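Suppose you are handed a protein chain with no further information: no name, no annotation, nothing but its sequence. What can you learn? This example shows the usual starting point.
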Amino acid sequence: MSSSLRRKENAQTFRWIVQIAVFVYVLVISIGKYLSWSNTANLHSICPFGGVVNLYTFFSTGNYVAKLHQATFILLIALVVGLILTGKSFCGWIYPLGSVQEWLGKVGRKLFPRIYDKLPRKLSYVLGFVKYLILAWVVYQTALSAKLFFEPWDPYWNLFNIWTGEIAISGYVVTGLTLFFSLFLERPFCRFA
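A reasonable first move is to predict its three-dimensional structure. Written in C-alpha cells, the prediction is:
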C-alpha cells in the first residue's frame, strides 16, 4: 500500500472517529438536558448557527437571543476559520446532522446505486441558492423576534430532542424529510438548506 493511500485511509479513520465522538457528545448533552443533569449545555449553545442568528441582536441591543450566549460567537468564529482553511469540512466532520445524513447516504448508495445523488444539474444549481434565502429569512426573523425562529423546523435540534415531546409537527416533517432524502442525496440539508 502506498504512503499516500495509507495517509488517506488514516485521515478517513480519524474523520470517522471525530464524527462518532461529536455525535455521542451531542447525544449525551441532549439526554442530559432532558434528564435535567446539572451543568448540561443547551444544544443551541453548541451550534455555530446560533452565532449567526445572535449577531444582529447582540450588536443592536447588547443582548443575546433567547437560549443563546457568547459561546455561540466562539463556535461561529471557529466555523468561519474552518471553512476558510478546509472548505465545507464542518458538515462532514463536526456537524452531527451532517454525519447522520452521511451515514444514511452510505445506506442509500448501496440500496439505490442507480439513482443515488443523480439530481439534475440545473435543479441542483437552483436549490443551491435556497440555503442563502433560508439563511436571510431566519436571521431577519430571529433579529425581529429575538427568539430562535428556526427552532420548530431545525432538524439538528429536532433530531436530538425527538424523545422530549417539545417538537412541533413541522419539526417532525422537516427532520423526516431530511433523513428520507439523505437516502437519495448526499447531505441534502447541508447542501440545500
